[in-house]
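Data availability excerpt. The first of two example chains:
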Amino acid sequence: MTTHLDAAYAGLAPDTARIYRDLSRLPFHDIDPAVVAAVRRITPGEATAHLATLAAAGLLENLGSDELRGPLYRFASPELREQALGLAHAHAHETDGEGHDVLGRALGWAPSAAAAADEQATPSHYHTLGINTGDLPHTPQHPVHHHDADCALGWLTAQSENLLALIRAASQHNRDDYLWRLVYSMWPWRRAAHRGDEWIELHELALSAASRDPSADELVERHLMTTYGSGLRNAGDPIALQVFTRVWEMAREAGDARGEAQALYELGATHLGNNDAMEAVPLLERARRIRVEHGYGRGGGAGRHPPRPGRLASRPRRSGPAPVSGCARRPAGSRYARRRPGPGLAGAHPPEGGRRPGRRSGPEDG
């Protein structure tokens, strides 16, 4: 630090100085009072006051105020962040456990807020797994609440870069229980942002985390694979067919007719997106029959009328997030275009009426 900033840090109250050190341990691009409150176990009002003090001292930069997040701050320079991290390491011995739970508390806060946003913005998706972060350590004392669906999506959009960075940090630190829950709960953001590369990356991390987490059962893996497959399909990756085939197999093994119908629909939609109506239509009709036979009726993806050939392939994709009221895809030749089947996919057998990429099968039987 410069002499001026050294003096500014030395003049901080102990609690404010500790917040400054804690912030250096977070992978966030910007900071708001809610996350500081969660990390330090204080009220948002107290966090706001500490952040304003740090900005007045020249240690943080005030970025203005966001309608949904409140006042935003960041380190005045990358050098200051590094120096603050050095201070955090130097002071670690003074307070038992200082820094030990900083990332954990941020991870406790993020899935709680994201799951609440998922429940507001896409309730059917939320209730599929009913993510309950109250069972995890570090439940925030002051959880984030979203007024309505627009505010929920707006919050996810505004926090997206921080949440992506936090997921990657969770992967580096093997915080599997938080990781897959956070990825699952970001579904509304994915639908609005259309950032396919990140969505695929996050799901590869989430599926690996879920495979290690004893609390993640087969249903968790299946639903993560379904949204993973949707990202692959949107990216034009042929592995999507293998992913949805494996989801179909898992649903059949679990005796889940609704899940089987949904997987068949996703397979049919993927073939249709490839302009392969001959493969698509039998799968879509089979999905419809299962739903009718089991009385599921309309409302789910497999309950809709099969899309017309060419409809998915010609549908324009938005390049940016959907507008929020009130409140680059990777180039050809990337590693995503050459992805090998993941664990459990290589042996997946397509249902009748579908085929492996590059291999044609006969029409659906009866």
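And the second chain:
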Amino acid sequence: MSNHDPKRLAMARALRSALRTEVLEEKPTSEEISQMLVDNGQNPDAIAQQYKDLIMTKIRGANKERLRTLRRENLTNEGFALRSAVPTRTGNLPGIDVIRSRIEGLSVNPEFENSPLLLAYRNGTKQSDSDITSLYEDLLELGVIKDDAQN
């Protein structure tokens, strides 16, 4: 007897076709999906938040790894040698309010308008002080923000 029984194969194809139609062609709306989750006893907002947190964790990890790689290779994205105008910092950082205002100052600079560098800041509303400080140190190292202590 063959593993490819024609009846079973026809049933599997019919099932695949029905699933394809249901999943790909019917395309339930967001409200319908939310209602299905509620009907199954799940909280759609909690599920969405879990996925958002997971995605943001992956993005942060990838960005940190990318920055580590750039530092290790001492190259920018364009492949030019990174020659930061700011030497390695040896002094203390300014206060968090000064740091926030300096980063926010970049958003009004036409040179950095819609820059991915500012995407990490996201208006500074969701980050801790240590996140903001870390971003500031990265911007200093890249030479995007000038260090007043070095002038």
